[in-house]
Design brief:
236 residues; Ribonuclease iii, N-terminal Endonuclease Domain, Chain A; Double Stranded RNA Binding Domain
Length: 236
Amino acid sequence: MGITPGDLPLYRQALRHVSAVSEERPDLPDNERLEFLGDAVLDAIIGNLLFTVYPGQGEGFLTRMRSKLVSRAQLNVLAKHVGIERVLETTVARAHESSVPGNALEALIGAIFLDKGFERTRKVVEGLVKAHFDLKEIEKEDRDGKSRLLEWGQKRRKKVEFVVKEGGGGRGRHYVAEVHINGEVKGTGKGSSKKTAEQDAAQSAFRNMRSRRPTASKGDDRGHEPRGSRRSPSRS
């Protein structure tokens, strides 16, 4: 990541999942507090980056772009790019865990922030974004994913439904959406509005269909994702 750690115990904590803390060593801190801090720092850095790159775009566009860049799926991909799983302390089976690497990356960002300060952390995060993400491709996906998914289902005679639930209250109110395709949950999303949650869920469904799609024979497009939803290989 281009830095030399100063406070080594801090980085070890960032890479220690709660499952790796045994009953015999309750004094060892896990990475959950650093994950909380790193999440806030990451939001600020990505928000500032998008604010600078897109001076003419409104709050809605910037929010959707940020949610894509800091989604759990994207953070897991980024964590694998930097090799976090090689040094991560955890007893959770890799095949059954979908959030440990991304959570550890957030904790690592929190550790860098405490050790090096905001400006150095910003340079590290922006360097990772530029190396592994294509903002132009992500920008294309900002188009109405829900409509594209419904159109895709109609063409292939698949039943596509969006199920939205409300959670929290007051300023903490949020929405969680699920995409059901032929009765099966294929994607989930969340947001401060129903529309944002549905769009997030639609993009989640696109990613899941791409990652699970078997190789189709020539001329067979039954499993293909909606046109225009493909990302670059480094971020699939």
